[in-house]
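User: Predict the complex.
Assistant: Input components as received:
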Amino acid sequence: MLPVSKISGKNPPRKKDNLWTRARIIQGIRRFFIDRNYLEVETPVRIPAPAPETHIDAVPSDGWFLHTSPELCMKRMLAAGYPKIFQVAKCFRDKERGTHHLPEFTLLEWYRTGIDYWEMMNECEDLILFVSRYLGLGERIRYRGREIYLEKPWIRLSVKEAFRQYSPASLEKVLEGNHFDEAMVCHIEPNLSCEKPVFLYDYPVSLGALARSKKDDPAVAERFEIYMGGLELANAFSELTDVNEQRIRFSREQEYRRGLGKTTYPSPENFLDALHDMPESAGIALGVDRLVMIFTDSDTIDDVVTFTIEEL
Amino acid sequence: MYSASDLKKNLKIQIDGDPYVITEFQFVKPGKGQSLYRCKLKNMITGSQFERTFRSADTFQPADLQEKRMQYLYPEGNKYCFMDLETYEQVYLTEEQLGDEKSYLIDNLEVEILFFGDKPLGITLPNFVDLTVTKADPWVKGDTAAGNSKPATVETGYQLQVPPFVEEGEKIRIDTRTGEYATRVKD
């Protein structure tokens, strides 16, 4: 490894080590999926109709939009007969900027037919362990002054149980009062900085517009998020393949958007058509910048990219 | 009117009729959830602090704050009297409101006073203030054992480290932002 140093001249100060680690992480990700016979794909960045999710805003681009995630195009590929696909994609979300957010960021998405969200958890454990070893770090890493053990199995904690343990108000109460996000940020997330990564699973169905609901409990979506060292890293679903249900979910999201005075998007009809042919699958989006933050022990996303939006 | 996306550290806003300064700020957005703005706020009148999380749709009034140039007159009990040089209006600030800044108050010093409505909240000193040394050990030439500085007291009672050559009765310039000696001043 090179010593920690700054990029010289007029360029912003950035730890050179972090950019080397970033490149190695992306190379490791590719190696992992290629070894498992996944097809690497590139789907268009500029699309006519992003998924209408209430709290994700797309950047307009000459009448169309920059994708907020490659999800819809990748699911069309599942429907077209590609059973295992992955993509490392630049994505764009309007007005998201903070120590863990950039309006332009890098997502790793992968999809696999024939598995559900529970089996997807195993593949997440395998991937992160593989990347850690690829970096020469092994099964224990240090992030924000604490050790994280990557040995399998990681912690599996349901949203309901998390609220029972950490929230002063029950999940039902919080949903009723429309304070789920605040409760997550103030009461749940601060407790997820555990010695192992955490799969927080089984979200209320209203919070996963593209996730399949549980057979025995339609109010719960088969969705999980990964938290590593307290940092939210990835979001996964058993994918919803019921086209009628998907239409209802999308129109509900459009309704919420309208209510909040936000732009509504055209209905993604080609995606909805493809759902007829989409096999049962699980899919996941993982924030590559945040993964680099963890492996480089960085406090801010600014430290793991070449340039932030303010520096352009 | 501010919106939530204008919030940042040191912004001053009005909540329930009181002025607050944002002392800590963080943008967060839990997965698939909404943008939230976590703030630590300090009441500029009482000094009390609390945390609050705002949503995108929340709006805020800017705190009705203004600065006025005034002159320091004299202490009165544990209060300090200042006067507006144009209107001759006088206001009082407490020892608590002034904090360490009272170490630099000498007669006729002009300062900026921060007002919320007609309520004075605090002062901003000039960056440099000249004060007379009232107590300092004499300088023994060639005495290197004393090191590069020695303690001294100025006319307000404030104590600081000064170079060995500074003598009693001399005037020195102090940087009010750091509280440190800057230079000697010849009248």
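The two ends of chain A are 28 Å apart (CA to CA).
Let me know if you want any component modeled separately.
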